[in-house]
Structures are given as C-alpha cells and as structure tokens.
C-alpha cells in the first residue's frame, strides 16, 4: 500500500518498504530542518566525511544497535536518532524473545555517520552501542523475523511464537486491545481491515503519538464487548503488510495514560484519508533543488499552475524539502495520492492530504 517508488541514492534503501512497508512520519530531515533549539544540535555536529560515491553505488544506510532495554519501542529508537530520518526499525528476536538488538534504516548514506555519533549514549538507563551494518545483514534479519513469527521450523507449532507472553491468555478482558508493531504509516482503515471479522468504526481506534506528534507504532482498539476483544486475540502475531502485529489485552485507563504521555495522531497525519476531503496535498522529501516546474512534471496527469504550488522555506530562505499543491478539486487531490512514494529525480516523494489551514500555518512559521 505504501511503497511504489525506488530510492536510487541509497542503493535501494527505500526498496525495503516493499518488504516491510515501514515509514515514519518524521519531521523535516536533519539536512533540511529549520533552525531552532528543538531541531538542531547544540553545538552543531561536525561535517560528514568528504567521500564520494562517484563510480560506485552508495552504501545501504543501515546501522545495528546493541544493548537496548527490553521494553524498548520504535518510538524510543526514533527519539534516540532524533533529527535523522528513521525509515525502519527492526527488533531482533530469538526463540520469540527480544535479544536487545535492532536494525535501523536511515534516509541517506551520510546519516549513518551521524548515527554512529550516538554510540554509547543512553536510552533510559541503558547505554546503547551503535555499529555500521550492511544490506545483507538487515535482509537476513528480516527473513529470520518472518520465519520466527510464522513458525518457520516444521517442528515448531504456532503457539510457540507466543510463549514469551503466556500471560496474555490469562489476562482479564475489558473490550480493549493494544496493538504494537504497526507500520508508522498505518491508518485506521488498515486496522479495521486487520480486524475485518469484527465490527469496528474509526471512532473506536486510537493511534498514539509521541509528545512531538510522531506515531509510536501502537494503537488501542475498543471492541463491542470483552468477548470480542478476547476473540480478536486470535490475530496476535498475524501480519499487517509484512509486519507481524503483537496484541495485548488493555483497558480504558491504559489508553488514557498513553494519551497523557503523548497524544493521538492528528487527523491530517492519521492515514491517507481526511474526514473532510480537500484539494490540497503536502509533498515531503523533495530535492532541495526542485522547482515548481519539477513538481508540475511530477503531477503531469493533472492540470496545475505555478500559482497553485507553494514550495516552503525556513526563515533563512533555505528550502525545507516540502511543498503544498492546490488541485482543481478534492477528487483530483485524492487521485494524485496514487503518486505517493514515486520518485522525483532520485528522491522518493511522500504525499499527505492537507488543507489551506495547514498551508497557511506553515507559511506563518517561516517554512
């Protein structure tokens, strides 16, 4: 559903989306972030090493982490690599148990060098080691995880995959389930489809966010009855896209606590469909050299004028890598979402439903 393009500059780094369908709705990348205390290092990081990829493919931008807390979440990894483009987080399990290791795919090869600067920094009370890794190691880990989740060994029964948390079966059900391991781009519609054997509405699904509005990879679902939530536990360790999803009995109190820690995703970022369709889309991931003519070429199947394209800049006049596009109608904007994850030059482009209000707010912030 999510990846249709191909990221050339990082030796198919974005290609992993076809296998994992993972993306984080992150803010502007480190290289395009507007200045400010919450978006920049203080002091600024040293310049990346001056090497060139001319004549050879750039390395796959992945690092391996070791020594993670055993309650570590994807949101913790995203915060650990704050200001870097975290595209995927893969936790490593063995025999159904978390090993304390993970792989993290970044947006650009040079971001690996910045990630390595976080070596031996802390997540919680644990210091975390960061190592350079390779594409084959990452893909092998994906294959192992899929095999582990689906019971790859012929002698291994499916319940074995759940044996790490047998208490789930004994937990009291209140009608709520917590989902963990969601793709960061998962929408309420995806969750409804995951639980398609049950009657659910979008109002009963809460996708949680961090304090700065990023998805946590978790959601809470309220079922019609405790019996339904217990029956829905049969979906534990099933896949959504290519990610296996963990399910846990939960409660209204746990949901309220999660909301108090961060909040819920805003409607405009919660999936690809807005409650009230508009004719505005937000583009993210543009090359900094992209102009309005490039955007018109990207949307060449639609009638656009330069006046309907708004490339955003920070207060220093530097491009942010984002733009807002006004289409002739909400129907055109919805049809244009088919271009999501396609490439402009060598960059894949993310598309999000937006609004004139978001456009004006962005302009007022000097973006």
Which descriptor suits the 3D outline? globular
Q: How many distinct helices? A: 10
On the 0 to 100 scale, the average pLDDT is 76
Helix content: 10-25%
Class of secondary structure makeup: alpha+beta
Low-confidence stretches: 1-19, 21-42, 48-52, 152-166, 268-276
Number of strands: 16
The gyration radius over C-alpha positions equals 21 Å
Biggest β-sheet strands, sense, barrel:
5 strands, antiparallel
Compressed to H and E, one letter per element, the order equals: HEHEEHEEHEHEEHEEHEHEEHEEEH
Query: How much strand?
Result: 15-25%
Keywords: Repeat, RNA-binding
Pfam families: RRM_1
Domain RRM: 175-252, 279-367
Protein name: RRM domain-containing protein
Descriptive key words:
367 residues; alpha+beta; five-stranded antiparallel β-sheet; 10 helices; 24% strand; disordered N terminus; RRM domain-containing protein; Nucleotide-bd_a/b_plait_sf
